[in-house]
Amino acid sequence: MLHPTCLVIRDSYEKIIDAKLLVRGDIVLLNIGNRVPADLRLIECFNLKVDESALTGESNSVSKSALPKESNMEESNIA
Fold it and tell me: What is the largest CA-CA distance in the chain?
């Protein structure tokens, strides 16, 4: 069985690792078509939309940004 992998920056180096080995402090690099391997705080993005249908049932993609919204009820910088 294949394990999901992701590209991270860890210890100042880019590495491809198993998603189950992600730890706090890893910076995950996402590209078009990538699956989000874990709960992430976005620190930089441009025109990012995430398909959250498996979590919310919502059929439309949700826009995300690196800047948190004023409201604590919904944070747009979480993927």
Answer: 42
